Task: structure prediction
Amino acid sequence: MAREYHLVSADSHILEPPHVWKQYLPRKFHDKAPKVVPDGDGGEAWQFSPDIAPAPIGIYASAGRKHEDVRWTGVTFAAANQGTFRAEPRLREQDVDGVDAEVLFGSARMMSHFFSDPDPEFQRAGVQAYNNWIAEEFVKVAPDRLIGLACMPALGVAESIKEMERCVRLGMRGVWLNTMPSVGPTIRPDDDPFWDAAQALGVPVHFHVRMMRKIQKPKPKGVRGDDLTGLATVGAADFIIDMSEIITSGVHDRFPGLTWVCVETGSGWIPYVLEQLDDRWWRNRSWLPVKLRHPPSHYYHRNWRSTFRTTPSPITTGSRRISSTTCIRRSPPTTASAMRPGRRATSTTAALWMWATWAT
Result:
């Protein structure tokens, strides 16, 4: 009997555990692999390379902690919530939280270590190691509850199609893109073979927070990760442009059956942006080089799914426009899942507007 889904988290996270690279990465690359080191404050951190300061795991292992207990440093893998990187404890936590399933994302910061390396063989091996780990230790354990997304390499369209097809065979239900498939600075016709392959496979494409327009080495605290402005605007600040460029590129006319998902971008800004896109398209459609068969908002409603966490505005200001395409994001193990007193990590209000993109 098929599982009934009542509450699905569309944006949940896992933290790569200490054994992942030793076990899944070919031995010849172990010297270049990220390593767990002390964080200088009694906790542990990932050391990506000698020329980059260690990246503490504390804030990325904060699931279930009270807000006042969240900290950058001083957290070890042994002391962290084990559901952060192990499937069985994760399933028990889902039961406690009343969550039927989660869509799982890894760390863009971690994967940037591989993306930024000049050796394509090392990058390919790192991406495949991550995908093999999540497929073997999460998806295989509970494929109906732990919904793994395959990380795509930044090695061009052909490599991404090959890895997507491989991961579908492993049981993955979607792909996670950090760059455009062609690794260009924005969407372009060179990406079309990938969208065509994803549409044929019925695989939704996911963007987390932003699209990387330029490959860079990982930073110890991410992009403005310890800055209030950065924390409050992360995602929306970049994806306002990213989504607009994708919609106006005409890609949705060429691949009308492909589902696109943006997570940790918020959704409150979307009604305004769609309104402005429609207005400017209508006023200027006779001379603009953008040739669309429908108003831009049509493509969001038909092709896109977006998430929100605590944002009431998708409901209060845009419910008629976007409520059917918004999703709840639970987001363990990051600070997004730190508990408020007397409340679980999930939101009842958000749950009313949950949309399981992969379960249809």
